[in-house]
Amino acid sequence: MTDGPPLEHLTQRLQACPDVFLSHAIDAGAVVADLIRQLEGDPLRRVHTQPLIVGRSDRAVRVMLVACWLLADEAFARQPDLVAPAVQFLGTDLNALADVISPDDCISDAGRREELVRFTLDALGLRPEGETEAQAADRLATLDSVARLEVVREAQVAEERARRIREAIARKAAAEAAAKAPRE
Amino acid sequence: MAHPRPGYRHHAPLLTEQGDALLRRMEQHPHAPIWNYTCGDQLVADDLRQLDQMRLELASTPAYTAGEVPEAVVDALWAQRPFVPYLKRHLPTSRAQIATTWADLPTLSREDLARHLPEFVPDGVDLDRMVVYSTSGTTGHPLTIPNHPIGAAAYQLLLERALEAYGVQIPLRPDAMANALVCNQVETIQYAATLSVWNGAGHVKVNLHENGWRQPDDAHTYLADFDPPLLTGDPISFAALLDAGLDIHPLALASTAVALSDGLKRQLEAQFGCPVFEWISLNEVGPIALACPEGYGHHVLDPSMFVEVVDPDGRPCPPGVRGEVTVTGGRNPMLRLLRYRTGDHASMAFGPCACGSSAPRLVDFEGRLPVVLRSATGGVVNPVDVSRILHPFPIVQHQLVQRTDGSVELALRAAPFDTSPIHRQLEALFGNLELAVRFVEEIEGTGPGGKVVPFVADA
Predict the structure, then answer these.
(1) Which residues of chain B lie closer than 8 angstroms to A178, CB-CB?
(2) Which helix (H) or strand (E) holds B96?
(3) Which residues of B touch A158 (CB under 8 A)?
(4) CB of B207 within 8 A of CB of B188?
């Protein structure tokens, strides 16, 4: 993991994301293609963006567009090594995040802004400038909406399971036990 | 084939015509106790096949030495790990590490179990087949323990093993009573049943207390007529048998629940001319250990159970060093416990014993001592009757102390609730004695290892 741009710089950039990225008035394929060319440093490169668009939910595409705005920062430009992880991130990894946070929140909510920035840097193998790997990982874990939701979901499942068992015990306590020769 | 008693099918799916005839004889005997409960073994045919397999497993002797975890126990834990939330969280992720990291695995208290009981119930068990037993235990934490008809029937198989160790074989006939479980309490359940795992032989639970019968001599006549070859119970109930001078000829008496004194054991042996043995058993995991026939402690009985003695930090004590008896495994399919602290204390001994067994032994086992409480008129009050009164209430832990002047103080660890029903029932039990019920934050442990003793009678 190498040093990336300062965290604050990137969160400020997200805050300044133009409204058009949240609307349907923008060609998502063109935005992704422009981003990849910028990362590649090759304005003439042919880019196939359909796999990143077709079949995805509108919400996932909008979150991807916000992430594209973030990655279009000059700090990432002309770094061909970032193309592969960026495509993987935009096309796949981001889906889980898009399931739990809205495109609007990625811009307007301070916690979710920081989460998207950290999530993006982590996917690219970068850490915020001035942070150690451990600090970056720790802070990301604290903000991780996907993991947090998973924990909540698991807790709900465990709670429901415990409720069923306690109800069965209460029901059976009122019923007859099985005969056995000795007592305790 | 039609069930001989359609309305009783749920209680005893395998009841036969012959079993029904025996049941009628036991129930309708002119001197029968006042039956107040309906109960059968709830076993189905497939359960019997599993119990046959279990009987084969029980033919082997528990064999492990200091520092070892039995392979059978490791295998069982590893197999249960994916299905039991607590095991999934606390056992290592490789089978090999279970034994190597054993001493670092957390121990469990009875309070842990009370608070997080569903964590120990495996996924996928059929909750409709659950059976439930209540216990006040040795530490005053009341608990409701889930089990399964197979787990209940395993007691009979382990009793067979215990009887074998004492050279006794009881006849298991489908037309005769094999066992009477005797109690001596103001109030308890009484029922008759047949036990499929014992060839359909008869079993009754009866209360020797006068409240349990219509006429004063009924208990004598009833037990003498059926003359059950095996009597099970606790020392307080067996002491009542001595008083009763019954004309019965048991082949063995199996005592549990509280410590059986040598004096009472000798008296019972002299009166009945048969072995009288104590075994240590917990509702949570079933039978743990059997008194050595030669008097050298208590032998671990079940090869599926790992009995260890640990210090307060959960580290296994070396042989000969006293600590808390802690158990893993056992025969309760509805509750899979790991390093469960029983609240009882002993040391461990390994190697061949004078009795011929090579099973590990608990030495100087210190379990619950029998406590006799007294009513205002001087009558015996069995602590079990107090447990019965307290059971319906949401109590974490309790301690009842009777002072030398007869006054009774009950301390309850619980979120406060209206205790007037408890007060009323205790008054009925103890009569006109000074009686106080209060809530406390903590109950001070006065027993071995700081254990809370639930019933205390000041000398």
Answers:
(1) 39-43, 131, 147, 149, 152-153
(2) helix B95-100
(3) 85
(4) yes
Query: How do residues A2-58 score in pLDDT, each as one tens digit?
Result: 889 999 999 999 999 999 888 878 899 999 999 999 998 887 777 788 888 888 888
What values do phi and psi take at B134, rounded to 5? -105, 150
**Residues A125-148: tens digit of each pLDDT:** 999 999 999 999 989 888 888 888
**B38, burial (CB in 10 Å: exposed 0-12, middle 13-18, buried 19+):** middle
Does A165 sit within 8 Å of B121, measured CB to CB?
A: yes
Is any Cβ of chain A less than 8 angstroms from the Cβ of B37? yes
Q: What b/e string do you get for B112-139 counting C-beta neighbours within 10 Å, with b at 16 or more?
A: bbeeebbbbbeeebeeebbbbbbbbbbb
- Range 215-234 of B in CB contact (< 8 A) with A: 230, 232-234
For A161, the closest chain B residue by CA position comes to B118
**B378 backbone φψ class: left, alpha, beta (φ>0; ψ -120 to 50):** left
| Interface confidence: ipTM more than 0.90 | no
Q: Which of residues 254-273 of B touch A (CB under 8 A)?
A: 254, 256-257
- Assigned token pair, B277: 């043995």
Mean pLDDT score of chain B: 92
Q: Does A157 touch chain B (CB under 8 A)?
A: no
CA end-to-end span of chain B, whole Å? 61
Q: To which H or E segment does residue B365 belong?
A: strand B361-366
Entry pTM: 0.77
The pLDDT assigned to B331 comes to 94
B188 vs B350: which has the higher pLDDT: B350
Specify which residues B309 forms β-bridges with: B325
Report phi then psi at B206, rounded to 5.
-130, 150
| Whole-number pLDDT of residue A50 | 83
Which residues in chain A are closer than 8 Å to B257, comparing Cβ atoms?
183-184
The verdict on a CB contact (< 8 Å) between B283 and A184 is: yes
